[in-house]
Design a protein that fits this description.
Layout lengths: L6 H24 L6 H14 L3 E2 L11 E5 L2 E3 L14 E10 L2 E10 L5 H18 L8 H13 L4 E2 L5 E3 L6 E5 L16 E4 L2 E3 L5 E3 L6 E3 L5 E3 L2 E4 L6 E2 L9
Antiparallel strand pairs: 1-4, 2-4, 3-12, 4-5, 6-10, 7-8, 7-9, 9-14, 10-13, 11-12, 14-15
This protein binds 2-amino-4-trifluoromethylsulfanyl-butyric acid and cobalt (II) ion (CO).
The site of 2-amino-4-trifluoromethylsulfanyl-butyric acid (MF3) has 11 residues, from strand 4.
Amino acid sequence: MIALKSDRELEVMRKACQITAAARQLAGEMIRPGISTGAIDKAVHDFILSQGAKPSFLHYSGYPASVCISVNDQVIHGIPDKHTKLKEGDIVSIDVGAYYQGFHGDCAATFPCGRISPQAQKLIDVTRQSFFEGIRYARQGARVSDISHAVQTYAEQFGYGVVRSYVGHGVGEKLHEEPEVPNYGAPGRGPRLIRGMTLAIEPMINQGTHEVRVLRDGWTVVTKDGGLSAHYENTVLITDGEPEILTVTGDGVL
Ligand code: MF3
Ligand code: CO
């Protein structure tokens, strides 16, 4: 069953998502050569608590941190730690969730560390744009896989691999709700979208093969071929008109 959120629930969820987006922005602003991923995690953890919220990921299925920080060939679920230092030229995916008064927000973005290669910047830009291609179909009456198909078609034009083993999802009272929102597939499949659904749409795009593997830590997902990977995610509300991106800061930063 797909939970439809009432207007009253959405007021709270907007706030949860605004805190989440501010946490993503804070993490992005901290990225610079020499900083440890653990320091970013700690600052974001403290920020989320200061907003009266809780980090959604901390202890979720045993995940040990508040933010996922995935560098270069790491796709998702990189574990921050104080010994991992960012360096010039890295691309850094930040994924964060905040739980506020009963609702979760979930969002991600990939940021450059200092100067990066044009190839890396292109991957970041295409990944972000693939999300915007997808939400063109996040409308009442469309089907879930219309979003999926749009993301895949756009990203694959550039020769990139669209990750299949991990997908977007409904989000709300639980971090992961129905339906699954894949970033690939034929259009016209899956549930029909209805006003009040809240979806985390999150393309994960690889420079090379779409194939991934999980490191021995049991969490970190990396590309099989060692190529770079980027991620972009927002929590999106289906309305009877334009979709509303909920994970936006008070200043309008996505
Ligand atoms: N943003 C991730 C997702 O959408 C959540 C990270 S998983 C966790 O699934 F275990 F680290 F929380
Ligand atoms: Co998510």
